[in-house]
Amino acid sequence: MALFVHKYGGTSMGSTERIRNVAKRVAKWARAGHQVVVVPSAMSGETNRLLALAKDLAPARASAAFHREQDMLAATGEQASSALLAIALQAEGMEAVSYAGWQVPIRTDSSYTKARIESIDDKRVRADLDAGRVVIITGFQGIDDEGNITTLGRGGSDTSAVAVAAAMKADECLIYTDVDGVYTTDPRVVPQARRLKSVSFEEMLEMASLGSKVLQIRSVEFAGKYKVPMRVLSSFTPWDIDINEEAKSGTLITFEEDEQMEQAVVSGIAFNRDETKISVLGVPDKPGIAYQILGPVADANIEVDVIIQNISKDGRTDFSFTVNHNDHARTLELLREKVVPALGAQEVVGDTAICKVSIVGIGMRSHVGVAAKMFRVLSEEGINIQMISTSEIKTSVVIEDKYLELAVRALHKAFDLDQPAAA
Ligand code: ASP
Ligand code: MG
């Protein structure tokens, strides 16, 4: 007997028919003698629908009080899908019980709309499992110290699932989704993209943070911190496929690098269309400017990604960085109101027509010239690089967004990631 956490995404939970299928699949695992905890997302489209209603009624400048209500509202999506899944399991003849985050409880901090899980009490869940029940826990949500409902950020059910798996020391956390694993890049952009049988945790972490939408990044961080074995697999295979076959399908996130020895230098190409560029122009070049610009941005809880500072001319320099699309207007406003006057900079300009493309691979540690090859490929396509950022296992470039597809396809090919053509 093993303990598995199954997570089902919104598409997999998208209709009562699909929920029935999930129930049949879960029942198969439970009947094979395993303990199963299921963490579902809201039915597809539901979170968007709820958030749109809130936005419709909200004042232009959203307050913390608004964010509290937003979480209160958005959390209902998962409560509904969890109860529906429990009902479907009961209809399959299984004993099943669902819990909202606060009933477990899953404790988080109080940062509404992007709360972090602090602890999970597994007593109640453990007792149900020992009594032979399937337990369903709402994804995406928790409760803070004051008893307010919080949510973990879009896509947060992945993180709920891995956190539950970590807390319960599950044997594996299976992330069922509408794709059959992690690909070398998004197959919608590159049809020749290949599924990876396994990917190292570090690569997955980079890919998630660089814009691969398969997993929420916090879920990968959690998996790394608590060494939770995690697998991404399809929920669209027939529910009654052989359980042993299913258990080996998809993409396994591994912690052992030796398994990767044979792998290509670059394992994947990630991209992010959600980034935007902010440039502070004509900043007096003196110690402390990065702090004076980015300090207030950090204080406003805005995440900054790629940063560059140009060489100075006549004692002044330009300072650019990228932020998420959602934070673009707020960042511009903040800098114009507070930072520019205080610093004596000339102006702040924003550019939303950019994107970030990255190559990722632990093989980059032991091979030189990988970044140079990336730059060569892009230059051969006539693509101008605006910003560069590197780490041990990735190189990212910021380019004009109209070149995204071209760049990703060219890099995918140049780094030998295209699927072998059918004979
Ligand atoms: N329902 C939430 C969302 O749409 C959480 C999730 O699906 O993971 O973002
Ligand atoms: Mg998701």
Automatic annotation (TrEMBL):
Binding of ATP, residues: K7, Y8, G9, G10, T177, D178, Y183, R188, K213, V214
EC number: 2.7.2.4
PROSITE patterns (alphabetical): ACT, ASPARTOKINASE
One Gene Ontology CC term in the entry: cytosol
Known catalytic reactions: L-aspartate + ATP = 4-phospho-L-aspartate + ADP
GO biological process assignments: homoserine biosynthetic process; lysine biosynthetic process via diaminopimelate; threonine biosynthetic process
Pfam families: AA_kinase, ACT, ACT_9
Binding, substrate: T47, E78
Pathway note: Amino-acid biosynthesis; L-methionine biosynthesis via de novo pathway; L-homoserine from L-aspartate: step 1/3; Amino-acid biosynthesis; L-threonine biosynthesis; L-threonine from L-aspartate: step 1/5; Amino-acid biosynthesis; L-lysine biosynthesis via DAP pathway; (S)-tetrahydrodipicolinate from L-aspartate: step 1/4
Superkingdom field: Bacteria
Keywords, ordered alphabetically: Amino-acid biosynthesis, ATP-binding, Kinase, Lysine biosynthesis, Nucleotide-binding, Transferase
Every ACT domain range: 278-353, 359-423
Gene Ontology MF: a single term: aspartate kinase activity
Sequence similarity: Belongs to the aspartokinase family.
Protein name as annotated: Aspartokinase
Native source species: Alicycliphilus denitrificans
